[in-house]
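Archive entry. Fields below.
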Amino acid sequence: MASLITCPHCGRRPKEEFSIRGDAVPERPEAAASEEAWHAYVYLRENPRGAIREYWHHVAGCRRWLVVERDNLTHEVFAVTDAREAATGDAA
Amino acid sequence: MTSSRIANVGLVDHSRVVKFSFDGRTYKGFEGDTLASALLANDQMLMGRSFKYHRPRGPVTAGPSEPNALVTIGKDARTEPNTRATVAELYSGLVARSQNAWPSLNFDIGSINGALSPMLGAGFYYKTFMWPAAFWEKVYEPVIRRAAGLGKAVMEADPDRYEKSWAHCDLLVVGSGPAGLMAALTAGRAGLRVILAEQDFRLGGSLLSETAMIGGVSAPDFAAATIAELADMPNVTIMPRTTVFGWYDDMVFGAVEKVQKHLAVPSADKPVERLWRIAAGRAILASGAEERPLVFGGNDRPGIMTADATRTYLNRYGVATGRKVAVFTNGGSGYRTAADLSARGVNIAAIIDSRAASADFAPYGVRVIRSGSIVDTKGGKRLSGIMTNRFGYDEMIDCDALAMSGGWSPIVHLMCQRGARPVWSDEAQAFLVPDVGPLFAAAGSAAGHATVSECLRDGAVKAHAAVEAVGRLVGHVNTPEVEGEYDPSFAPLWYVPGARSKAFVDFQNDVHVDDLALATREGFGHVEHAKRYTTSGMATDQGKLGNVNAVALLAGMRGVSPAEVGTTTYRPFYTPVSFGALAGTARAEQSRPIRTSPLHGWAKKNGATFLESGLWYRSAYFVQGEEKTWRESVDREVLNVRQNAGLCDVSTLGKIEIFGRDAAEFLNRVYSNAFLKLPVGKARYGLMLREDGIVFDDGTTSRLSENHYVLTTTTAYAAEVMAHLEFASQTFWPDLDVCFVSTSDQWAQMSLAGPKSRAILQKLVEDDLSDASFPFLAAREVQLKGGLIARLFRISFSGELAYELAVPAGYGEAVADAIMEAGRGEGICAYGVEALDVLRIEKGHVTHSELDGRTTADDVGLSKMMSKNKPDFIGKRLSTRYGLTAADRLQMVGLKPVELDKPLKAGAALLREGVEPSMTAGQGFVSSACFSPHVGQWIGLAMLKSGRERIGEKILVWDAVRSSEFLAEVCAPVFVDPENLNLHV
Amino acid sequence: MRYSALSILGQALSGNRGWKPVWREPQPKPHYDVIIVGGGGHGLSTAYYLAKEFGIKNIAVLEKGYIGSGNVGRNTTIVRSNYLLEGNIPFYEFSLKLWEGLEADLNYNAMVSQRGVMMLAHSDGQRDAFARRGNAMRMHGVDAELLDREDLQKMMPYLNYDHARFPIKAGLLQKRGGTARHDAVAWGYARGADSHGVDIIQHCEVTAIRRDEKGGVTGVETSKGFIGCNKLALATAGHSSETARMADLRLPIETHVLQAFVSEGIKPVIDNVIVYGGGHFYISQSDKGGLVFGADIDYYSSYAQRGNLAIVESTMEEGVSLIPGLSRLRVLRSWGGVMDMSMDGSPIIDRTPIENLYLNAGWCYGGFKATPASGFCFAHLIAKNEPHHVARALRLDRFERGYAVDEAGKGPQPNIH
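PREDICTED_STRUCTURE:
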């Protein structure tokens, strides 16, 4: 990872084509969810050392948001999925 | 003469003389020399001064690990300090100077530090220079800084070019010695795409100084034949002068190629250096091994170098490092060097062998002192003798050079850059490469093999594995027979007892054994602490020569194994890399793209002065006639817009086209105000929040047809908004049928503002533009006379009757010209972003000066933009938190200085009148300010605590950094047409 | 042993045999009043001030590696208090005042060098933003000067003033800002804490936090066994989420890696700290001659103390764009520090919802300069159970309450602060 990333649409591309947003695990709550749930969604992070899911945006490529599953200690990448697919289970 | 060239020996071309200079004196070398070998050939052993004690130093190596022989190469803007003479390829016209010596290399005042050395031990500076406190910056530190560094930088712009490139291969082989060549050959013959990278300008590695015969030919001839075969393979790329400096994730290697560093004046057509990012399927590290210096008293005098270096100067460069060379060794390497020297007629003063016995053969007639040691040396600028000791008996032996061997350490650097630590081996008495997985393997002496034949075989074996792993068949590769090998074994000797003068571990930084002992005594025995406390391993060679010795010495002092001490962390860069190579072409104006608007040409011919605005060049103002200051131009433009009309380039606004059945629903969720019911043909101002309830960006969005919108963003946030919309669409609501495309660069957009704007525009537009048929906030396609379809939006930033007209970018300049022509009778002018800013401040419209990432909609008086009815929009839920709705928040107000001539400036702070300035007394700040020709004085927008309750209050504008303070009146943030009458005419 | 020129002379005359260990290597006691997890700059300064200023004597600092092995030894050594927001300026100014008295206080020369920190502005808007910041600093009594281009050209003739994209328009100078010798800060605090009786226990990794039936913390399990405490203080920036997780606490933090660089040593050419406003590049020159610099984080979450080449290159691009004369100099070494990137770019010094558990975290890029004040304020909090007045804004619950301290105005995305 982080030197080369395999975009499911564009193939293996260098890191500098992507912008990275952060943790892809928290899910946006329902509007009516509690303030605690919203606070947790916007602000709190598990931030584990090891396997994580992270949002990457292929800005200089297909402009799709991707979910990159990787290890943040070894920088090994396990999988890269289109975010829509990750959210809905359907291919984008 | 003591060190000298031997006729017709070595791989340098004795027929091609190369002239160069060192410290102003001209010398001759041969093609194929390094600067160091050429200087040695001219009996110039003294090449540098050490950092701390300014001790005279000569080269201790013949390669990239050199700590001593650092010189400044080049002239003027091509000056390069700290260049290692041992790897600097000699070229005609090379100019080198010594460094860190004053007044001269031969006589250096700084060497007095050596006499003070008992007071300058490890970390002495942490214990003193504290009194009196003010003396640190004024007295002590300037003195210390004068001693800082080695070479001098000229700090001039670099005249040469650099570039970057990607390379891809199945197998990267780092190093072209016996293992590297055999690896490349094996993989190359099997059809793999191979890159063979070699830091040296000549391929062959240790084979170039090897005297053993390989496959019946000399080692250099074997290397040449192998390289010739590789060069003929289309699938093999040979990269000489290319140092692989870093191993990064995903098997990406950083490498730097010296393309024209061996030329006095490089061609402008090529870069001087090229950065390679090599994406390799697999890699083999064949970087060889480093011979360790021995740590004994006086081991740093010029003329003392490793046995391997001595041998390299002799066999590769044809240079004898002395007339009478002594050898100090703990293994076979010293004997081998003695044999080679002797064969070339160099006198061997003696071989001092630390071992009691060995099977090594000394050259005929050479005296061997077994169980011997050296306890001191003598000589000034060059070694003149060694004090040996055997069983307590001293003997002074005259010599003018010493070849030392303390055993070998594999060069494991690259494999340890990603967190794996090298592994101590008691058997090898060295740190060996760690297992970093199947993709990256070490071969040859980097993998701990010692003999040439083992290295050849191991290179083939490791490549074999790589070939099989990619499913190819291995071709036939014979490992050739090697004759004349020596026994490379050695017995560990980390410290030679009885030192009578300093025994150096880190030559450049002058770290000696006593420093490590002091560090250990004071509790800095951890290898990282010892490094940081003594600076051992922190010089430009990064401890390539000394670190393993330091580790073993610490182990001895702590009474543990080197395994327990471990190594310090290996990090890029393997050897130092120029800023220039890493920056590549991305410097000066190439460092970021320059974006010019499609109306740039129009603005230019109308006399625009341009302003850098993010990545854009925007027209700031248009000087006319006798106008001498930018204010005169801006004032005229502003007044003219309010009285007649003006045309401004607003093409830099972000423009996003949105399509889809659910586009309305989508917009309704990303904007805080309602968008579901926006009619076709209408524009609406919209506010976007971040999820934390803070304003993100604003702009207008127009519905061009049922499922087609065009959204505008501010210039600065165009990219962020696009990414934000894509994120929301793809992750929050993938079920919504909506898609976007950024068309910021596809449309030229211009704002035509002022009471006469309709009259002017109507001359160019077929459609009826009367207020009835094209009212305020109308937005639709219109046809220009001549047939061009354009988009017209009746929106206003200035508060006047105004339109924004968008045409395909290529038509921009022609349309703008036509508008100027059509408006000539109405007194149209071009106006720039400065006037635009004045107009919007007068009208109280916000920009990112107010929306600074900390403001809520309510802070800037836009609470009505926060829909109460929508169940959800981005930022809704957290916008009601206590801190975001507190009564004492900063709220936007207008400001007018009480005295008309006081210039209000953005960034000034606000204080209550008569209150002492303090953080808690702060009332806010001026966010935007300008001279308003309409109002006739400076005005501003400000963020003021509970501001809206304080209209009419006098407040102190406190601008300490610009030495101004005066009173201003708080007013409503609208200075023209508060009833918005002008918008609806 | 008191350090001075005299002690050095005395030792020199007697063969430097009398220097003593700078800190003891004690075995852990069964119980301490306060255990501080993390032997970095913040943990050690916390221990020092707790013992010296707040009279608590029974203290242990537990460090899983060697002291100073975290970010205190992996930064670009800049100290400054040129902040914008009310929640930050008093805190960092307090820190700078402590830096100014540090050597005298510790009897250890951490080489605090007030060489000046210059932030460059490249547009009118940026100049105005710096004016706002400078005024905010001045309101609090912090030194700040807004210099124009001509002033800057005299001070730093080697900068590229007419860069096509980022011409230099102005500079905000804090003369009292500068640099300090990073490792020496850790060692000086360790020596000071040790001399006040603090047990510094290296190579002692905390593996679990033990809590009583009511949830309160009673001690820690470590690689050297269980150690009890009345109060547990976490100062493990970079790994705060991992340590807090042992007490079932989730934090508003993501961990990222920031690279930094040093060049080969050259004779002094750059006198002050320079911060490039056209990017993130910052640079100074150490007393040894190396140019010490850095820029952006690598942007992806990382606990590895190493980065990748893309950021290396963009850092050099910014460097050469700002200072063209760097081009032929050479970069010697890069390294990476893992950092707590918080949700608003500001740190946290606060109690936690868990009884007896105190948190010092979220230092983002800026932990080094905060070292003295962070320790002092954390010690104050631990000793008195109430925040020090300069650290009142740095609470853990500020996000829930809507009081983010967002210096950059970037919102809740950690990697862009």
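CURATOR_NOTE: Residues 17 and 29 of chain A are 30 Å apart (CA to CA).
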